[in-house]
Amino acid sequence: MRLPNLGVCAALYAASIVVLLLSHLGHGWGFVDLSIYRYGGEAALDGAHLYSLRFPGALAFTYPPIAALLFTAATIPAVSVVETLVTAANLLALPAMLCFALRLRPVSAWLARREAIRLALLASAAAIWLEPVWTTLRYGQIDLLIGALVLYDLSLPDTARRKGVAIGLASALKLTPAIFALYLLLSRRYRAAALAATVFCATVALGFAAIPGDSGEFWGGAFIDSSRVGRIENAANQTLRGAFARLLHSTNVQTLWLLGALAVGVAGMGLAVAAARRGDEVSGFSLCALTGLLVSPISWSHHWTLAVPALLLFALGAYRRASTASLTAAGVAAIVAFSHMIWWVPVNRPLHSELRLDDLQLLFADAYVLVGLCALTVTAWRASSRRRGAALNAGAPLLPSP
Length: 402
Fold this sequence. Notes:
single chain, disordered C terminus
């Protein structure tokens, strides 16, 4: 690929950051989640009942105990200093995450490391305008760090002794990345999966040693109580569960969600593992990420930063194959994220307004879920077509003999 030199790519990223901050999207950043991190850190220092507290906006601390211990560092500097540091860290984590994604097989076989860095910077210049990334920035979230940890781990060769450590750490900060430990296990990278589990368990033990009461409360049941996280019908909740609630105009969708999550989870992980076993880590990561986002009880839109590398990898593959259909699909997915359309509906105005959306509003409110399901469906169809083609080429019958 012919790309500008490193200095030009970095300058374009910096210019895009400046334009974003000066635009209307750069105003009114409340850093609401960063404030929760600070409150959690203060509660851990004060010995308060961390998981019984309700912070401004009736928000609860929903992260594992070890995260509260780490967030104590955010309580030391002034708020404005912390906000600046976290924003800067996120703006560095974004190109790092994308660069690690470009080191996955088979892209790493034909894209040199220097090209990957330049392409990651160029892609970041566009990606900061995507709704998941913008939301991460304005909330002061840690999702870009989580994504960078996961992709750093997956970009390591399977022979690397430290492979699995970063996924274990990411899972200790937020539970959702634990699906990648399962991905490693099912794709027969047993040592890396065991290392991820060991690191995770070590952080749990450290939490019990430092704040035993809070650890007992969290691991005793608070971690599976999704009602503490927020309204499931919220348009920002881009999961099957949220989509079912909005579609059926009811929050009583537990059974339907569990059945749907089971079906999508099995199918999605099956496709991801099959891709990994044939050496396609790009597809394996992308399918695992989409599956995790869809089946989780809650996937706020900023969690979908994990789908941003998948979009880049898909678009790059489509460009390399000169596939008009795939490039069009990548463009549609990008438009969905660039447009911020999930916010084009009334969000809790009036109360529980997302349970009363019309058909067009449902299309907007469920946009990420629909894109994710389409991606999994098309992948499954292509996999089925490959199997049928292989069976025909081998002269095998498509159906068993009676």
